[in-house]
Amino acid sequence: MTGSHEHLVRLHDVARTYGRGPGAVVAVHGVTCTLGRADRIAITGASGSGKSTLLHLISSLDEPTTGRIEWPGLGGRPFGRPGVVGMVFQGPSLVAPLHVLGNVALPLVLAGVAEGEARNRAGRALAAVGLPDLSMRLPEELSGGQAQRVAVARVLATRPALIVADEPTAQLGSAHAAQVIDLLMKAADDLDAGLVVATHDPHMAERLPLRWRMADGTLMEGEPCSS
Ligand SMILES: Nc1ncnc2c1ncn2[C@@H]1O[C@H](COP(=O)(O)OP(=O)(O)O)[C@@H](O)[C@H]1O
Ligand SMILES: [Mg+2]
């Protein structure tokens, strides 16, 4: 399948258990779902319900203990292929000694894009998140909201087919949080990329058209199978 109904990721009865024996923690179990390119999904659920584990499995940063994951629309497992999945995390993720433009250009440079072209793309991505004037700032000179918008620009610059954000607004006030969610949605639309955002904030989840709820490691409601 191609176009907006393309399946980016498919999970079949996936489980992830940390540790072994009596101390083992079942972080995720019984998850079967499909992510499409047109999907914009909020994963909600209490702390410890397995949201981060599920996102790591989807992004192939982690591997399931049982079950199967496929990435048909991403050309196979994305691990080790920069720019296939773009990630935004909760806390500070910018490289402290590099100015903002260098941070946004860094994944491109690491992927072998020539430095001039990388800087051009980084500059355009910063303009797209409304921060064209902060290029020469250092991360320590940014507010929390600005830093997360730079993290969105860094994703945008690499043009991933899937954007995964793990509690990207947890450390922001509600106005800045809403701005970051809306920029993630806009980035997904501009790139024709899928979007999955974990959040424990129902107000942020409401800004996304699809909501999946996790409880005790499993998907409880919503429409887990899409496209
Ligand atoms: N590396 C780890 N080792 C052991 N247990 C873990 C690890 N990471 C997460 N867990 C446990 O797995 C469960 C799910 O955690 P997590 O996926 O981080 O949930 P959430 O992101 O919803 O807070 C929790 O019980 C957590 O303590
Ligand atoms: Mg988490």
Describe the SSE topology.
Blueprint: E1 7-18, E2 25-36, E3 40-44, H1 51-59, E4 66-70, E5 85-88, H2 100-110, H3 115-128, H4 144-158, E6 162-166, H5 174-191, E7 194-198, H6 202-205, E8 210-215, E9 218-221
Parallel strand pairs: 3-7, 3-8, 5-6, 6-7
Antiparallel strand pairs: 1-2, 1-4, 8-9
Helix pairs in contact: 2-3, 2-4, 3-4, 4-5
Bound molecules: adenosine-5'-diphosphate and magnesium ion.
Adenosine-5'-diphosphate binds next to β2 and α1.
Short note summarizing the structure:
The chain is α/β, with parallel strands linked by helices and 227 residues long. The chain has 6 helices and 9 strands, in the order E-E-E-H-E-E-H-H-H-E-H-E-H-E-E. The protein has a 6-stranded mixed sheet with strand order 5-6-7-3-8-9, with helices on both faces. Strands 2-1-4 form a 3-stranded antiparallel sheet, with helices on one face.
Describe this structure as you would to a colleague:
With 227 residues, this protein is an alpha/beta fold. It has a domain at 39-55 and 75-211: P-loop containing nucleotide triphosphate hydrolases (Rossmann fold, 3-Layer(aba) Sandwich), CATH 3.40.50. The protein has helices at 51-59, 100-110, 115-128, 144-158, 174-191, 202-205, and strands at 7-18, 25-36, 40-44, 66-70, 85-88, 162-166, 194-198, 210-215, 218-221. The strands form two sheets. Strands 5-6-7-3-8-9 form a six-stranded mixed β-sheet, sandwiched between helices. Helix 2 packs across helix 3 (115-128), helix 2 (100-110) packs parallel to helix 4 (144-158) and helix 4 runs parallel beside helix 5 (174-191). The N and C termini lie close together (10 Å). The structure holds adenosine-5'-diphosphate (ADP) and magnesium ion. Residues 18, 25, 27, 45, 47-53 line the site of adenosine-5'-diphosphate.
